[in-house]
Amino acid sequence: MNVAGTHDRLFREGGVLAPARDFAAAPPPDHERTLTAAKLTGVEFIGAPPFPEELVLQTSG
Fold first, then answer.
1. Is 24 within the bounds of a domain?
2. What is the pTM (predicted TM-score) of this model?
3. Domain tally for the chain?
4. What is the spatial distance between Cα 3 and Cα 22, in angstroms, rounded to a whole number?
């Protein structure tokens, strides 16, 4: 469930400005920062992504 003001706050707290408009130039995900932002905003991750791990690694660094 996504409550108004929650999802965008998670991105503001946990995100960083993109260095370029090129996905390949993006830094790897900062999972610690994401989890900290989730705690601050009341967002709960309920499980692993529902697709094979090799696809996750392929797209996230």
1. no
2. 0.62
3. 1
4. 30
Helical H segments across 1-61, by residue range = 7-14, 31-41, 53-60
Please report which confidence band the pLDDT of residue 58 belongs to, taking 50, 70 and 90 as the band edges: low
Q: 34-51 b/e with 16+ CB inside 10 Å = b?
A: beebeeebebeeeeeeee
pLDDT in tens, 3-52: 777 788 998 999 888 888 887 878 888 989 999 999 999 888 887 777 77
Give residue 57's domain range. Answer: 29-61
Say if CB 37 and CB 13 are below 8 A apart: yes
Instruction: With both helix axes pointing from N to C terminus, report the angle between 7-14 and 31-41 in degrees, rounded to the nearest 10.
Output: 140
14 contacts 45 by C-beta, under 8 angstroms: no
